[in-house]
Structure prediction request, 818 residues.
Amino acid sequence: MQDTAIRDEELRTVSDPVWRILTGAAAFGAGVFVCGSVGSYLPSDPSWNAATGAEVQNLFGGPGAIFADVARQLLGWSGWIAGLALMIGGAMRAVLVGKPRIRRWVYGAVAVPLSAAAFAAWPVPESWPLSAGLGGMFGDGVFNLAVLPFRALMLPAPASWAGFILSAAALWAGLAALGFRRRDALLLQETATRSGKHAAVSAAGVGGFLIRIGQQLSARQQPVRLSEPVSGDRTLIIKHDDDYVPSSRYLPADSDEDDETGYGASAWDEDEDLDDESEAAVPAPGLRFAVPRPVPRTVAPKVAKPERRRVSTRLPSLDLLQVPEERRETFDEDALLAKAARLSEVLKEFGIQGRIKEVRPGPVITLFEMEPAPGVKSSRVITLADDIARSMSAVSARVAVVPGKNAIGIELPNDEREKVFLRSILQSDAYVNSRASLPVALGEDIGGQPTVVDLARMPHLLVAGTTGSGKSVGVNAMILSLLYRHTPEQVRLILIDPKKLEFTVYEGIPHLLAPVITKAPEAVNALKWAVREMESRYELMSKAGVRNLAGFNEKASKYRAAGEPLVRKVQTGLDERGKPMFETEDLPIDHIPQIVVVIDEMSDLMVVAGKEIEGCLLRLAQMARAAGIHLITATQRPSVDVITGTIKANFPTRISYMVTNKVDSRTILNEQGAEQLLGNGDLLHQEPGKKTQRLHGPFVSDEEVCAVADWLREQGEPDYVMDVVEAKDDGSSGSPVMDAMLGMGEGGGEDDDSLFAEAVQVVIRDQRASTSYLQRRLKVGYNKAAGLIDRLEEEGVISAPNHAGKREVLTKGKANAA
Prediction:
């Protein structure tokens, strides 16, 4: 029985394309007959309405003459429309890949009477041989009905109104039957706005439509025959998945929501549910294809190039970035079914029982959801990732549990990888309509949907990835996404690039607080300055009575608009009568920009000044969020000596591009999987409280980065704050808390001598010598107290520690001599 069922499926798989070609050819032939008959119509030919003995001149003889006469009487000129509709519909059915679209035939059938009614609104020429109008008797009837509402409204020229609406409806139905969509219309509008050339407009719209048909033609392949079904019955359901978030939130593919917004949504969208006829090869029971919708493309407003104005009023144009390549919108279902069947066989070979129940194709990878049999441990399947990749002849495979479902996700790379462009994300709804304070474009998820996050909510980001993984390109995309949204008055940057290769292109743009930093000592000074700036902002926000930088800027803007000063009232004491005395302090009301510190290679800094770098990063990560200071730190060596436990604990949001081994993956993400990424921008994004999400980072070339940087440099000179890179004279950080953390700032020079003299007196007087004791008595930090103990030993005041760690005071009763 099973073999018989398999043969039946194989026969149906082979016969379905043949039946489609035959029916398409029949429709095309009928269209040729209609056009030929109507085109060679003569009133003198014998027909039901003309009993003449003249010789038939019609191209198709007597039947053609009779049909042409009936068509002219009923439909008029729209008989041509009926013939063309049959020819085009038949050709598309016979040639194009995919299942038949019943809606297209319905639109074509509706277009014919609508065009007849539209022709009926036209004035009838004297040479017209019929008593009815140009739309025939049927067109006259529909037109007369359409005129009635306009006459009831007593509008002027009701016939003109009815003719205009009928013509528009006929045009809409005809384009819908051809598969013309909103994306093509918007492309026409965008091209017309940019160039103003009619030739370019026509080429853009028609070309986009023809390119899509060409892609469908090139995707045509022979059906894949499966010698054995994946399992059970065979039903193929192709659904859309609007809000699919891979690895962090998997939604079921049986959502039948219609997309009512965006380019890909319209009454003639090709990606709707298909009819009951199936042309796929042997799918699994309930196997679903969650085909992602085309990414909604909302073109961001282009900023024209007016005369030179202030920097704060201008943002870069998207024309500086590369135009995205045309995305394919259909997938080879037969190939996906064959891959699903092969994956099921591979799992059985390794003793994993289960079934592939859902397939989610994307631009870079395809996700296969497997429902394991009872008793199958997910950890066992996860450890087989490398073996699955080898058996599937794939570069790599990533296996992870699908949250919220009894399924395990197996991610395999596509045979042809599509490139994700930064411009496509910056002009998407996710970025254009984002309400994020600091929107950062991370890329697209495995379903092809743009992902934009808010750096201000993270509030800091830790990035890791080996050489060639796309880490530097990803950081550049993050910087550009900030530059495309904010002016120098809103966001300032501190770029630290020890390798002197990645950020030098941004030298001189107005957003910089200091020149691009390439030396480790200057990087330490910049981080210390950021700590001082953070504490200064906290003090200002405390005086203003607000909780964060956004609250202060909002309050200051109200005072600026009202033209009033922001005053703080402070009680300074009591007068002679015991009444409180107050003083007022004027606070600044200027807008304070947010600051983003970007470190390209943290490992180089940790080698030179690890303790100071770690202390500064720790202080900023703990407190800088409310002050509007945010960090993006990147490293290509995610080892424990670079990403220490203290740093990782204070950077909950992390991104990992491809790394070399599982140890590095666990170091950055606390889980494995980053070593199985594909490189070239493939990444894992981890946020607090969410599952790890796989994304495909956008590509931005060096030429694009240079173009944007050059444009920004043309807008004005940077206003550098040189205190960012200059060290303080006393060598301290300028922050008491930071000095205590780093063991600095507790005196120097003569202060050290006086402190040492005080330590000598304390030790001789109390006859006790220990680091903790000096800490308590002198109110100093541990590092300073330990240094004093060492110096006391060198000066012979105390002895070296014995076997128990205790020291003996060698000098007695001579405290003043010291």
In short: The mean pLDDT is 75.
